[in-house]
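Could you please consider the sequence and fold appended to this message?
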Amino acid sequence: MIIGLRLYLLSILITIMIYMPVYAFVSNSVDNNQINEIDLMPEDNNGTDKVLKRLKNLYNKGDILSLEDLLGKYQPHNNVGETAKLFYQARIAIRQEEASDYYKTLIEKFPETKYAQKALYELAKIALLERSYSTSRNYLKRISSNNQDKNYLLATVNLNMSLFPEAIHSAEKFISESNDEKKIEIAYLTIVEAHILNHHYEKAMKILTKMHAEAIIRDNGSIVTFKEGYCLEMMDQISDAVSKYRHVITQYPYTESSLQAERRLYNLTIADKISHAEMSITSPLPERADETQTDLSIRTTSDLTDKYFIQVNAFSNSKNADNHSRDLKISGFDNIIIPKIISEQQLFIVAVGPYKSRSEAMQVQKELKSSLNLDSFIIQNP
């Protein structure tokens, strides 16, 4: 159960914080005269600054084709230009291995630059995606610049290395420095999880109570309520725990927290701690959860009317679907899992979306192919 909780929180933490660049291909292109003008710029800081601004603007607009064209033509004349070129080459690389090579070259050749600091952070994210926690931690420790998200990411890494005091310290440091309410909420949940994994259930409950009292809870009410139930169960306050689990199931159906609550109630009946009557939910379930979940969502088809999705895969095993869904979210693609029975076989469809129009879905479909090399097709009202 502890391992499951750890993986569950990891999927949530990474979903919000850790995202790979999502590229939107737009029709804008660099005018040939502008490119030629850049090529002919003198070898001075003013010329370099103009190139860097152009690189940044193209990247921020998502005009990857023009950015690739400019990077191919641009021959830097100083270290600042060369570091910028390496950095943006890494950012638009399709394969993680290629991106890593660019970042490592940048750090090796220009270790004292701001781009080297950014490259260390990107390498730490890649290592975390690969679950190479020690490597990710080493990269983060080498970052000397004032980067608030360093502590946010470090808290996640420390948690998964079972370095619970360090995870709590990093999360607390991030909370004290940041104004990002969504990330602060997740940082508090990191502290809660560290206490739970360290069997300090009373301390975890104090943090959860604080989250209620200070209105910290934004998007993860179901997770908070489930963890309250779990802590109460571990503290042998079974009646209160059952109440929390039942609240999760009735108020946040079709979510991962709801599924976990059902499993906990079932385990309590097996252990003869509650009766089957206590386990049953007599109140009718609402059609869907009232909150927008940032964790895994399993929806019924009635929730998906008049919406477009991009189907990327289908699994007969729900765990495989969970893993694929988590990896997509790490890469920046929000998605849901849709249970379906096809030809008398239970399938779990992983679909990116939803989108209001087919054209919007087609745009993201191109991004899936360019950034993750995923084949897919668009579905409506799955």
Observations:
- Confidence is low (pLDDT under 50) at residues 16-44, 281-303.
